[in-house]
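Following up on my earlier thread - several people asked me to post the actual chain instead of describing it. Fair enough. Here it is, all 412 residues.
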Amino acid sequence: MYTIREALQQRADYTHQFNLKTGRHGWLRLTPAYSVKVVEELIERYEAPVKILDPFCGTGTTALSAVNHGHAAVTTDINPFLVWLARAKLAHYSQAVVIEAAKAGKAALDLAQREAVQPASEPSIYKIERWWSEPTRRFLCYLKAAITEAGGPEGPVNDLLNIAFCRTLIKLSNAAFNHQSMSFKSDVQCLFEFDPKVGAMFLDDLTFVLGGAKQNPLERGEIILGDARDLTTHLDSKFDVVVTSPPYANRMSYIRELRPYMYWLGYLLNGRDAAELDWLAVGGTWGVATSRLTEWLPSGDRWLPDDLPSVLSGIANGDNANGALMSNYVAKYFEDMSMHFNNLRDVLNPKARVHYIVGNSTFYKILVSTEKLYANILREYGFTNIEVRPIRKRNSKKELIEFDVSAIWPGS
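Reply from S.P.:
Thanks for posting it. Predicted structure:
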């Protein structure tokens, strides 16, 4: 059986604790340290205050880095949980709020340990017993309800307590992070021993979160719920710089990776909700998205690179299991990104520079050179000074690399 001590040690191996003026980048393990470093290096190139856009918000890495360097920042995401998290990261917290959150956290833990509140309902995560043992789920249900009781149903205190709650629930889970995608330490059921002293873990997590909350960003940023393929609907200003890391063409579902947080915080109520949101996202291919991809056809009204069809044909080869499905996935991914780049032009100032941090991928040994395809799409849409700069190897496969694809929008 795994013990709490062993769980914490394993989590320490993978949890990102990057500290940039605030500790907020490390509030949840969703952004690797190297990604933060790359974003930092790019933003540090711009000395004068500029207006920076991140159309694929994620956990708010770009926006937080930008405001801490004195720039104005706006970021968008289609996932409401990530919008909430980014808003919490970029919020300004008064000393009074931090003190109140510390008191509310202790009060919530006391209520949970005494089971002195009506427990929250257990989220309907598929096979939840693989994630948490029954005693752990019981504790988390009481703690979730106690947070609402002690910290209020919404507001900054509630936000800080729930971020700490998310850190605790993933530490107590049976999830493993030693692969690209979240997996489980045990395939049958959660084998964690439940330690009655686990409350100290929640208080430690809250202390970490409040430590970051005490150090407010230098500027204020704006986080908008919206689709990166339709930026003009959500944005009413123009930008000087874009720094972003969009989803990669690697069939990794970010909704799937985020589901423990999203279910416990009420952003997902059932598997259908998760699948529908994943289908809406760029690169979504989980649940119902898989069956829809089987029948999906290109719209024909988006420009796609001339060298893409040969890549799609290689993936769709009849000798490849699910080759046709994966070919459709890659085709839809680049159609979505083409739509994004086309729309992006309308929210850029003349001479705006864009940076896209993205990795290539392989399907059935067919290399999808995402960086080159991005460069071709940008060129078609009138961007100039296009550069493709390798950043780092992604793993042991020598052909898998991350790139900074940059360009300048000359203006129309």
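Residues 323-344 form the longest helix (22 residues). That should answer part of your original question.
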